[in-house]
Amino acid sequence: MILSQGLELLYTGMGAVFVFLSILVVATTLMSSVANRFFPESEPAPAVKKARPSASAVPAEVVQVIQAAVNAHRQAKGRSKGE
User: Fold this and answer.
1) Quick check: is 27 in a domain?
2) What's the number of domains the chain is made of?
3) Ordered DSSP codes for 18-48
4) DSSP character for 50?
5) CA distance 10 to 30
């Protein structure tokens, strides 16, 4: 008797949740179609590609300075770890 009442409650609860979720899906679909009808999505403007500077645009002296700074940083980082 108590088992049958438990199963009845289980099916009633699961049925209610299923019905609610079904109504929610239908309502969301309808709202989406209404919104798309009255406010259509505009075409995005094509992206403008920016030209990246080539490696030859950077002077060799600047490249050497950057490389020296990276090397100094790596050496200082290695010393702080106790290597």
Assistant:
1) yes
2) 1
3) HHHHHHHHHHHHHHHHHHHHHSPPPPPPPPP
4) P
5) 30
Write the Ramachandran bin of 51: left for phi over 0, alpha for psi from -120 to 50, otherwise beta. Answer: beta
Task: Show pLDDT as tens, one digit a residue, over the chain (83 residues).
Answer: 899 999 999 999 999 999 999 999 999 999 999 999 998 888 888 888 877 766 667 888 988 999 999 999 999 877 665 54
Residue 49: inside a domain: no
Token representation of residue 77: 């980082």
Checking 10-17 for CB contacts under 8 A at 24+ apart, the result is none
Q: Please state, in angstroms and as integers, the Cα–Cα distance from residue 38 to each residue in 33, 43, 50, following that order.
A: 9, 15, 35
Residue 46 within any structural domain of the chain: no
Scan for tokens 């940083």, then name that residue: 73
